[in-house]
Amino acid sequence: MDWNDTPEQSAFRQEVRTFIDKKVPPRYQRDARGFGSRYDWMEDRKDADPEARRVSQEWVDALGEKRWVAPHWPKEYGGAGLSPMEQFIYKQEMTIAEVPQGLPAGASMLGPTLIIHGTEEQKKEHLPKLLSGEVVWAQGYSEPEAGSDLAALKTRAVRDGDDYVVNGQKIWTSGGHFADWLFVLVRTDPEAPKHRGVSFVLMNKTTPGITVRPLVNMADEHHFNETFFDNVRVPVSNRVGEENRGWYVGMTLLDFERSNITGAVAARREITRLIDYAKGAGAEQSRISALPSVRDALTDRYIESEVMYNFSLRIISIQARGMVPNYEASVSKTFGSELAQRVANTGVKAFGLYANVWDDESSRAAMGAGPTKSYVRSVSATIASGTSEIQRGIIATRGLGLPRG
């Protein structure tokens, strides 16, 4: 395998870097906003401050000029039509720069799904508004009793003329408080086998009966929500794909969450920051020099981040050959989420009792309490986007050919 860019890939990488240098607004640059967040843009577009709203639109417009709001979409639908390797390079460079990459749920997942399964009317209505930043989407999949076993979902949709009447609850709706629309899996046939009685529908969040309530995580942050549906009327025309065949539409959508290059870059970034800080401003707080076990752990994490990067390269290489990664993506997801937890754990160990300081303004806080908060955030890493248990089941049955049960 050749780890080096081809001349064409090298030129494209430089194009992305030049774009970042020239077009990223100061508000989204690393030195102005700290470590950044993928929710910056979505938060700003709803901000009470008109300047925040202006900058958010400026960023989307800049991406739009390059067709990079949805770089992986075909050109005929407003995307850039980038090859899988170009997409990989684009995401890698944007993640290294820590700038908002646009629309995590809408452009990355829903858009390609509509292109494959949507009607022409649905494409005309939703794709342009997604590309322009006019509409932001959130995902309604998990439920309180149907997380890892998603097919056990109970949110019910009953046909009433030209509408479905939807009742139920979703949980962990990431970015739901910023979103304008939701794409939701609902049960339309409770008598059918659980994978065959599901439909995929689109909902305007302003529809009467939809309530989004915040869920604040252990790090005292609000990224996800619980969403309630009380006799919500959804036009049948908002169903994507066939009735009771929505499971296959939903799984198509999840196929677009694959390479995890962002996870590999983030792991390497956190390790490098930790080492630099421990050798510099945090030398007196750090236990790296005193404890060989901490140095060994840091070495292991660095090597593991390289392994993670190569998992990502493997997946994008599969996609570049026109194939769909399956168990390989589960291997990458499992390794990546568990690596994130190990990196956070090592960061806390590196600073001992200083890692107990939560206040990021405190002079005693190591790295502005970054490792401490990462440690708390990382608890959910092996649950979100498919638990490690589920991923190991996929690896066992599809990768190793082991029997089910």
What would you say this structure looks like, in words?
This protein has about 400 residues and is α+β, with helices and mostly antiparallel strands. About 45% of the residues lie in helices and about 15% in strands. Helix 6 packs antiparallel against helix 7, helix 9 runs antiparallel to helix 10 and helix 11 runs antiparallel to helix 13. The two termini are about 35 Å apart.
Estimated helix fraction: 40-55%
Strand order of the largest sheet: 1-4-5-8
Query: Main beta sheet, described?
Result: 4 strands, mixed
Radius of gyration: 22 Å
Return the structural class: alpha+beta
Between the first and last Cα atoms, what is the distance in angstroms? 37 Å
What fraction strand? Answer: 5-15%
Mean pLDDT: 90
Give the SSE string.
Answer: HHHHHHHEEEEEEEEHHHHHH
Oligomeric status of the shown chains?
single chain
| Number of strand segments | 8
The coarse overall form would be: globular
Low-pLDDT windows of residues: 32-39
Q: Number of DSSP helices? A: 13
How are the SSEs placed, and which strands pair?
Elements: H1 7-23, H2 30-33, H3 40-44, H4 50-65, H5 84-97, H6 106-117, H7 120-132, E1 137-140, E2 156-160, E3 163-171, E4 181-187, E5 198-204, E6 210-216, E7 222-235, E8 239-240, H8 246-254, H9 261-279, H10 292-320, H11 327-351, H12 370-377, H13 388-399
Parallel strand pairs: 1-4
Antiparallel strand pairs: 2-3, 3-7, 4-5, 5-8, 6-7
Helix pairs in contact: 1-5, 5-9, 6-7, 6-8, 9-10, 9-11, 10-11, 11-12, 11-13
Question: Can you tag this structure with a few keywords?
Answer:
four-stranded antiparallel sheet, 14% strand, globular, 405 residues, alpha+beta
